[in-house]
Amino acid sequence: QKEVEQDPGPLSVPEGAIVSLNCTYSNSAFQYFMWYRQYSRKGPELLMYTYSSGNKEDGRFTAQVDKSSKYISLFIRDSQPSDSATYLCAMSHLQKLVFGTGTRLLVSP
Amino acid sequence: EAGVTQFPSHSVIEKGQTVTLRCDPISGHDNLYWYRRVMGKEIKFLLHFVKESKQDESGMPNNRFLAERTGGTYSTLKVQPAELEDSGVYFCASSQVGGNYGYTFGSGTRLTVV
Question: CB–CB of B8/B108 below 8 Å?
Answer without folding.
Answer: no
